[in-house]
Amino acid sequence: MRLAGPARRTFTFTLCAVALGAAALVVPTSALASGAGRNVAPALRPDAASAIAGYVWSDAGAAESYYSYNSAGGSVTVTPVSTGVYQVDFSGLAGIAGAAVVQVTTYGTSDNCGAAGWGSSGSDLRAIVDCYGITSCALDNSDFDLMVTHPTSAPHGTFDYSFVYMSSSSGNLTSFQYNSAHKKNSVKFLGTGKYQVTLGGPKTSGTHGVVKVTAYGSEGGDCKLVSWHGSAKGEVVDVDCYAVGHIAQDREFIVTYAMTSNLMGENGQTDANAFANGRGGVYQPSVQYDSHHGAHITVVHYSTGSYEVLTPGSEGDAAHWGGDVQVSAVGTSGVHCIVNGWDQELTPAIDVECFDSHGSLANSSFAVEWVVP
Fold it and tell me: pTM of the predicted model, to two decimals?
């Protein structure tokens, strides 16, 4: 079934400056407040040996079992803490909290949802998500997709991630990292809000694979994927970060790269990902990957800022799993892309919408991933 997104919201433009949160990866105290979360135990799937991972779609502040996955077979809980602030718990995954990263994609609205912290809570991994209006400094209730992972052995292909905590300096990144080639990840600070992340690896060239970027911190604005390409030192990812109104701003963010793999780095999943940057009304992206032989991806551009991504041949076990979608806008403009629904059937279909910094629909290239057990 197609998941219809909530009504789009608009805001009055207000420029603000909010200080970044305290020490990185500390779960805010407010996140420990009680709330009306839903504890969901997903269907058990044998653990794919390459990673400990999970995902969840938060619908109206609650986890939906069909759209929740925990490789350890434990529960997934989403708890609203306050307006626009959500607590996500993956039961039994505390062991990876000190090395894992999370990725977040807004669902159904033009809001910006990002990671405000993650860490261990008893035996669970707990992540905090903050959602802000795209033209507002105010927190706003929103739905979202969240993914968490840490590999336990080398996934197929190339898989790297970094929490970029050096918001105004350059150097090697040494915590909350993974590199499948066992090389160093580093960041070069290029100027206010501009970063170049190098994920060390073999010499490559051109644009391949898929990248996801998520802003970190408790404030409005976002971090955006500008481009990615191979180099003599490995994969190079350019990222721009900004405050509300597309004003360049130094901030922290999370970046994940996968080639012939998925953004969880977990073998055995059905995956389709692509760089959707074509100009036609209907086209097959030249940069795409499908885990099933003979599968392919087609993008349909319906109207300004409105797209559908079709992944025939990449259906999973639809009787038990709804799958997960992650999206990142690509380019230098202030456009931000969200997922507006998807359909896990014979031909999986993903709706993507993109908005400019004023909250209006706008055309954009984007990177998109579909993954399902």
Answer: 0.89
